[in-house]
Design a protein that fits this description.
By secondary structure, this protein is of the alpha+beta class. Helices cover 29% and strands 31% of the residues. Strands 1, 2, 3, 4, 5, 6, 7 and 8 form an eight-stranded antiparallel β-sheet that branches. Strand 5 and strand 6 form a beta hairpin.
Length: 143
């Protein structure tokens, strides 16, 4: 299995170094409700960092993660999954592999990451208080 991950990462690194886009499936629940296993992300080389955008990075323990950048504090980057309430602190710029540039749904349609509704969603996900209210309202209206 580790060989498969290494091959996958090597292909990703080669693709983005050639300034091409790499399409990757989503696995896990940390970015729900926006990203689920029915979607794919398009990744590109992260030439600059911006709060609110999603990045694919490698943790110190070797685990690969796709989360949203919450804060830039000196040389430390703070990330958090949309479905999480605890920040991941002290990520360094050299741990960033790629940046999410587009989302593809199960029908092959693209989510507009520059739309007003997406920008509002990102603002909510970056602030714990608004995020808690958002998830509470989702539970209420799902009933």
């Amino acid at each position: 299995m580790n060989n498969n991950i290494n091959s996958f990462i090597n292909l990703l690194l080669k693709t983005i170094e050639e300034d091409k886009v790499f399409v990757m499936p989503i696995n896990g629940t940390s970015m729900l409700p926006f990203l689920d296993s029915s979607k794919k992300v398009k990744l590109k080389k992260a030439e600059s960092l911006k709060k609110g955008e999603m990045y694919f990075y490698k943790r110190e323990n070797g685990q690969y993660v796709l989360h949203r950048l919450i804060k830039i504090k000196n040389d430390n980057l703070i990330f958090r999954g949309d479905n999480q309430f605890i920040n991941e602190n002290d990520i360094k710029k050299n741990q960033i592999i790629a940046k999410v540039v587009e989302i593809i749904d199960e029908n092959g349609n693209f989510d507009n990451l520059s739309s007003l509704s997406y920008k509002i969603y990102v603002c909510i996900m970056r602030h714990i208080f608004f995020k808690k209210v958002y998830f509470k309202l989702r539970r209420i209206f799902k009933k």
